[in-house]
TrEMBL record:
<dbReference type="GO" id="GO:0019646">
    <property type="term" value="P:aerobic electron transport chain"/>
</dbReference>
<feature type="domain" description="FAD/NAD(P)-binding">
    <location>
        <begin position="3"/>
        <end position="289"/>
    </location>
</feature>
<comment type="similarity">
    <text>Belongs to the NADH dehydrogenase family.</text>
</comment>
<keyword id="KW-0560">Oxidoreductase</keyword>
<keyword id="KW-0274">FAD</keyword>
<keyword id="KW-0285">Flavoprotein</keyword>
<protein>
    <submittedName>
        <fullName>NADH dehydrogenase</fullName>
        <ecNumber>1.6.99.3</ecNumber>
    </submittedName>
</protein>
<dbReference type="InterPro" id="IPR023753">
    <property type="entry name" value="FAD/NAD-binding_dom"/>
</dbReference>
<dbReference type="InterPro" id="IPR051169">
    <property type="entry name" value="NADH-Q_oxidoreductase"/>
</dbReference>
<dbReference type="InterPro" id="IPR036188">
    <property type="entry name" value="FAD/NAD-bd_sf"/>
</dbReference>
<dbReference type="Pfam" id="PF07992">
    <property type="entry name" value="Pyr_redox_2"/>
</dbReference>
<dbReference type="GO" id="GO:0003955">
    <property type="term" value="F:NAD(P)H dehydrogenase (quinone) activity"/>
</dbReference>
Amino acid sequence: MRKLVILGGGYGGMKVMQQLSAKDIPHDYEIVLVDKLPYHCLKTEYYALAAGTESDHEIRVPFPKHVRRQYGNVQNIDLDNKKITLSNDTKGETLEFDKLVIGLGAEDKYHGVPGASEHTFSIQSMEETRRTYEAISNLPPRSSVSVVGAGLSGVELAAELRESRHDLTVRLFDRGETILPMFPRRLSNYVTSWFEKHDVEIISNSDITRVAESALYNHDERITSDAVIWTAGVQPVQVVRDLNVEKDRKDHIILTKHHHIPGYPDAFVVGDCASLPYAPSAQLAEKQGEQIVSILKAQWKGEELPSSMPEMKLKGTLGSLGKKKGFGMMGEKAAVTGRVARLLKSGVLWMYKYHSGV
């Protein structure tokens, strides 16, 4: 039996699986998913799991039943010989593929800051988020938490922490003059105002030079912190960074217009590991997954591939400020704030779960 192997059950890999039913693939093919966990995780909700406002069970989605699952960690990808080396708790093994979709996601990037990898918590994977939740939950009253990085993840996490633990001192560190620079100034000001009202300290123009066991250093000034959570940048996982293929300056794999690696028409890359002209997001990974499915179907039918691919139009970005308020952009120009934005985000999450069979 020939194999379409999907590495990683994130948003992009999930979309490929959902749109390729048994009738869509050749009779001599099977779909094999390689993942560490037996379910898809809603990474956009990891901030809430870490803060303790959502349970582990609430952010799980079952994988499609028609896909064969193989559990383990990907240790090596051999594109030339079409082999994947895996490891799990008991042994290592090799998995051959005929078609491959690499969707292994991202991990934290520490920018060379001493002590950051050893002394910070993360929300990049389900396992790491569980550890972060446990650490936050075990903090005694009047402890301090520092969130490093005021992008979307850092902002949502800091806000959720404030709602879940009113007794904590919460600080949000950002390198820029204003938080959320990717949004219009109106939204940045709205979020800043929310933090001021809810007693979350924003430390702008920060430069974290070192992290120690109970402190971080901003411009070499020591700031005591009982827990430091790192949301200050990501990079493709190590096994992808080790691939001997062309990458951009951030180590994302450069692809053809058909989303496969140049010279390897059977190896596609989706999501955070792909070099695309957009900021990485769950929505983008899904759009890309849809296009990869269209290319796979054309390849299997022996059809000529399209000379160009449709533009991946994104519907916007929504963020939460606790359970009652939010912010975001619908399309390119429509800014939304407050209760409406939070309800929209909740609705998007409900629709995703509904269409995934939850």
